[in-house]
Amino acid sequence: MDLAYLWFFIVGVFFVGYFVLDGFDFGVGMSLPFLGRDEVSRRQVINTIGPVWDLNETWVIVAGACLFAAFPEWYATLFSGFYLPLLLILLALILRGVSFEYRHQREGLAWKRGFDRMIVIGSVIPALLWGVAFGNIVQGVPIDADKNVTGSLLTLLNPYALCVGATTLLLFFLHGLYFVGLKADGTVKEEAHRLARRVALPTIAFAAATVVWTTVIAMDREAPALAAVIGCGVAAALALLGSAVANLRRRDGWAFALGAVTIVGAVLMLWFALFPYVMPSSTDPANSLTIENASSTDYTLGVMTWAAVIFLPGILAYQAWTYWVFRKRISRVQIEKADAAAAH
Prior knowledge:
Strand order of the largest sheet: 1-2
Subcellular location: Cell membrane
Number of domains: 1
CATH architecture: Up-down Bundle
Main location: membrane
Transmembrane segments: 6-32, 77-98, 119-139, 159-179, 199-219, 225-248, 255-279, 299-326
Protein name: Cytochrome d ubiquinol oxidase subunit II
Number of strands: 2
Radius of gyration: 21 Å
Largest sheet: 2 strands, antiparallel
Strand content: under 5%
CATH superfamily: Formate dehydrogenase/DMSO reductase domain
Family: Belongs to the cytochrome ubiquinol oxidase subunit 2 family.
CATH class: Mainly Alpha
CATH topology: Formate dehydrogenase/DMSO reductase fold
Order of helices and strands: HHHHHHHHHHHEEHHH
Shape: globular
Distance between the termini: 64 Å
């Protein structure tokens, strides 16, 4: 396989990893107003992702770095044309990270509640805007002959992109609720189960609309990977239904695993719908960016391939070890005992 095509799918794998891992981080953050009835329960919710949220975010840094190195034309057009949405995502991620680190620095209720609201805002905005951004990339945006996006922010807020954004928002919310059910106990766990049952129906509705709409776009474009688009869409839909059933049967591990499969299938569906383009032009197909005309030289891609072969297994092993170390449930009793010990 040509290295440019290989790296197109490697970048896709990095985004899959990011959305699966940071996706449940976003969902946990969004669940805070619904599951955090008191300070102990709010800390219980936050502590489910406390040891791993910053590690999960590194996936988007790696994905962006690989995009820059492997497809500089794609990177330049994407970041210039999508500057405002990507800036909002960056600011939201900073807001969320600061909140995790600073909410426990003072004991005042107003102080903690303020940072809790920032965690929610910093989770909702990326969950929505990542979907909007990828929806526009798949559907196509106005690109001129100089490979510049000529539309405005309102151009990006079109019906299909907003549908994809609502789908990612709900999928991440549901994924986060499954994670809380897997990692917490007591009242928080029960509330996560109940809320997941209510969120499942609108998530299924928006996901179905996104799968059908994306398939229609791929058919109109005569996408060469149309069979893969349909297959990934169907797999994602079945996994989403399976996760809802597992949650009803209180099978936390299965619910979370099938929720992860749903996100994997959804992202791959969008990736195959895009292939062989990286940014289609909605005005003139001749201005579109493809895998071939947006990629780096073979030498650059070859060096990157060797670097990935050498370093990626170690990174994956380290992340797996981290999740293994912090695999235990977060108990309300543990937090209360820690508070009592600190008071003495």
